[in-house]
């Protein structure tokens, strides 16, 4: 007889459920279908349209299905490995139907290439061959070990995953070949969590929170916590770094957040998904505002409800304003964050990138008690336990060329307010952190807290991105009746930073809310930047306005152009041309005039004193040039470190007003 072979895609069955290529590796091209050993086989057995995969991932006790017509319930199939006579298994057929039959893998099956012989009484027929890749099936029955208080298994589908980092917040261990872990833990941190490996994801809980952790009991009992992963390819991914939302149900913040920020963020997500990239979010703390947790009835649980429509996995950092203001103790004050959101420090991997989240706020809150909000004071500090954990976590990264990101709320380096720019560490434990990162060739620190943009490059191996706030000036300038814009203390628009990653290649760009990504600076005609109460705060006095208007209190007729380049770092360039001739461009440290008229002037105009923390600050991402004419058009050309060019043809005079672009 002649066997006819058709390329029908076969099915591997797991627990009776049809699955195509059920395995936990990255998606690959469909293997070629195995062909019969010969075109013509003389046998009394007739199997029509036989097909089986050339390579099958399977495991003991699983069922492998063959396609074909003519199988009988009484038939058996012999798997014979040509290279090893001892690898021969004769198996009865199961689940026989009109067009397929299955075999159950024996407990001692091993990976090899097998010939497939169908046996029917005294007759036999060579159907073809296939390669079996035998995976170990997950065993959730994990025995106790004396002294070990935490145990569990990390797995994907029916495959255990070795070498996954698991931690109790101090110790870090790797799962064994069976995906198992044990930790002799005192459970002090209150969590057990995994560092999600690259090209995997965990389940997402309500409100977009990845389920990479479990809350622990506060006793010495043995707890088993298992972690289920799903394979995905996130080598090419985007991380949206979201700093300082300060949601408090005040200043029209919820309507500004929902009406301006969320549509902007969702548009960015759709853009990058449309480019085939996986998109993730990471907050940098101060999602809420401790002062208003109780008075305005808006805390972390309300924040999660507000942001739940954002359809991406969202990791979180904690900030000083995310602590319970009724607690005068750092440990007690952070329990609300832990109960509602999760661990305050941990790590995860996306593709080749290792991300670390730290808590560098030691909340003191002098004078607080139940029902009483304290001073909400704090230290910028990495605790000893975190530094011990961090060292253990970094030790699991053997490839020191992999990108490493450390995210935390408060800045590592201080805002440079003099030139030449100085890199000055501004938090306790910062020197230790920098020393730990020295062995990595591509390290990034991403922080918020300051509500301004600046970049520090202390070495060619390390860069800090201090990222301006989503809330800008605590939602003041966009409040009803105010400036109608959204601007931070350094003149940056309120926004977030977009990191695009492909393998080890990392790029980034600041994204102003309501702005195109191509909008990276704002220009000012300093001849027009005379800030007076008469023009910008008519209900106030010139004396009060001069307290805030700085150099802009005096008129300027020097034909100077000021350019504020929000995400500037030393690898950017700023050029200006008048009638085709280059102007001399000088980097300066000064204040942004738009912010002065958008915040200080508006507060003075309603009879209020501007809050000291909210007023315009000096910034070093300013550039100045002098033109020969007050009315000539100046061409501005800004080039970032990746070669992207941003331009403006600046027609002068250019009036200073809250709607200036």
With helices defined by DSSP (H or I, 4 residues minimum), what is the helix count?
9
Unreliable stretches covering 5 or more consecutive residues? 1-41
Describe the sheet with the most strands. 6 strands, mixed
Estimated share of beta-strand residues: 25-35%
The dominant shape is: elongated
Helix content: 10-25%
**Total DSSP E strands:** 41
Distance between the termini: 81 Å
Radius of gyration: 32 Å
Q: pLDDT average, as an integer?
A: 91
Helix- and strand-based class? alpha+beta
What does this structure look like?
Helix content is 13%, strand content 31%. By secondary structure, it is an alpha+beta fold. Residues 1-41 have low confidence and may be disordered.
In short:
By secondary structure, this protein is an alpha+beta fold. Helices cover 13% and strands 31% of the residues.
Protein traits:
single chain, alpha+beta, disordered N terminus, six-stranded mixed sheet, 9 helices, 661 residues
Break the fold down into its secondary structure elements and pairings.
Blueprint (H helix, E strand, L loop, with lengths): L11 E3 L2 E3 L28 E4 L3 E4 L4 E7 L6 E5 L7 E5 L7 E5 L7 E9 L2 E12 L15 E7 L2 E2 L4 E3 L4 E3 L5 E4 L7 E4 L5 E3 L10 E3 L7 E2 L2 E5 L4 E7 L10 H22 L3 E6 L16 H8 L6 E2 L14 H4 L1 H6 L5 E5 L2 E5 L3 E3 L14 E3 L3 H12 L8 E4 L22 H8 L5 E5 L6 E6 L2 E5 L28 E8 L2 E8 L8 E5 L7 H4 L5 H8 L10 E6 L7 E6 L2 E2 L3 E5 L2 H13 L13 E8 L7 E6 L5 E6 L11
Parallel strand pairs: 4-10, 11-19, 11-20, 21-22, 22-23, 25-28, 28-29, 29-31
Antiparallel strand pairs: 1-2, 1-5, 3-5, 5-8, 6-7, 6-9, 9-10, 11-12, 11-15, 13-14, 13-16, 16-18, 17-20, 21-32, 24-25, 26-27, 30-31, 32-33, 34-35, 35-39, 36-37, 36-40, 38-39, 40-41
Helix pairs in contact: 8-9
């Amino acid at each position: 007889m002649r066997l006819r072979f058709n390329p029908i895609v076969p099915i591997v069955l797991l627990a009776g459920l049809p699955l195509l290529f059920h395995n936990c590796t990255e998606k690959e091209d469909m293997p070629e279908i195995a062909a019969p050993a010969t075109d013509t086989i003389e046998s009394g057995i007739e199997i029509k349209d036989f097909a089986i995969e050339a390579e099958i991932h399977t495991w003991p006790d699983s069922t492998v299905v063959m396609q074909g017509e003519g199988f009988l319930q009484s038939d058996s199939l012999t798997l014979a490995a040509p290279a090893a006579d001892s690898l021969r298994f004769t198996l009865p057929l199961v689940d026989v139907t009109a067009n397929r039959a299955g075999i159950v893998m024996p407990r001692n099956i091993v990976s090899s290439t097998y010939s497939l012989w169908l046996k029917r009484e005294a007759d036999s027929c060579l159907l073809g061959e296939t390669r079996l890749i035998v995976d170990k099936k997950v065993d959730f029955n994990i025995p106790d070990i004396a002294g070990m208080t935490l145990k569990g298994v990390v797995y994907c589908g029916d495959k255990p995953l070795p070498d996954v980092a698991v931690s109790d917040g101090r110790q870090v261990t790797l799962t064994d070949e069976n995906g198992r872990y044990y930790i002799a833990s005192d459970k002090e941190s209150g969590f057990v969590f995994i560092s999600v490996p690259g090209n995997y994801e965990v389940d997402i809980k309500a409100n977009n929170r990845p389920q990479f952790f479990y809350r622990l009991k506060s006793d010495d009992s043995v707890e088993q916590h298992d972690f289920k992963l799903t394979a995905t390819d996130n080598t090419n991914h985007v991380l949206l770094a979201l700093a300082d939302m300060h949601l408090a149900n005040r200043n029209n913040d919820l309507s500004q957040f929902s009406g301006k920020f969320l549509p902007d963020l969702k548009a960015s997500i759709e853009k990058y998904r449309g480019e085939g990239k996986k998109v993730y979010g990471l907050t940098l703390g101060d999602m809420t505002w401790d002062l208003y947790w109780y008075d305005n009835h808006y805390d972390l649980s309300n924040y999660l409800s507000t942001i739940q429509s954002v359809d991406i996995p969202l990791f979180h950092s904690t900030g000083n304003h995310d602590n319970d203001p009724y607690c005068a103790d750092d440990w007690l004050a952070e329990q609300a964050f832990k109960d509602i959101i999760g661990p305050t420090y941990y790590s995860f991997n996306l593709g080749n990138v290792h991300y670390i989240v730290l808590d560098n706020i030691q909340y003191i809150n002098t004078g607080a008690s139940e029902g009483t909000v304290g001073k909400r004071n704090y230290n910028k500090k990495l605790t000893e336990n975190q530094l011990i954990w961090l060292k253990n976590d970094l030790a699991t990264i053997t490839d020191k060329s992999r990108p490493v990101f450390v995210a935390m709320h408060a800045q590592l380096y201080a805002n440079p307010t003099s030139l030449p720019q100085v890199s000055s560490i501004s938090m306790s434990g910062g020197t230790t952190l920098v020393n730990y990162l020295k062995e990595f060739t591509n390290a990034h620190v991403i922080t918020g807290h300051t509500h301004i943009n600046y970049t520090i490059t202390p070495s060619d191996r390390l860069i800090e991105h201090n990222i301006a706030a989503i809330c800008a000036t605590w939602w003041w300038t966009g409040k009803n009746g105010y400036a109608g814009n959204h601007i931070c203390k350094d003149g940056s628009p309120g926004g977030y930073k977009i990191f695009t990653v492909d393998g080890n290649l990392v790029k980034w760009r600041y994204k102003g809310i309501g702005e195109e990504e191509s909008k990276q600076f704002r220009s000012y005609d300093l001849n027009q930047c005379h800030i007076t109460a008469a023009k910008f705060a008519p209900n106030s006095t010139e004396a009060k306005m001069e307290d805030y208007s700085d150099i802009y209190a005096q008129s300027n007729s020097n034909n100077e152009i000021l350019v504020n380049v929000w995400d500037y770092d030393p690898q950017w360039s700023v050029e200006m041309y008048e009638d085709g001739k280059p102007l001399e461009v000088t980097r300066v440290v000064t204040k942004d005039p738009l912010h002065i008229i958008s915040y200080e002037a508006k507060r003075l105009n309603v009879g209020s004193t501007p809050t000291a923390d909210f007023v315009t600050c000096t910034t070093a991402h300013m550039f100045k040039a002098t033109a020969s004419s007050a009315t000539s058009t100046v061409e501005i050309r800004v080039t970032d470190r990746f070669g992207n060019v941003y331009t403006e043809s600046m027609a002068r005079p250019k009036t200073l007003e809250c709607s200036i672009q």
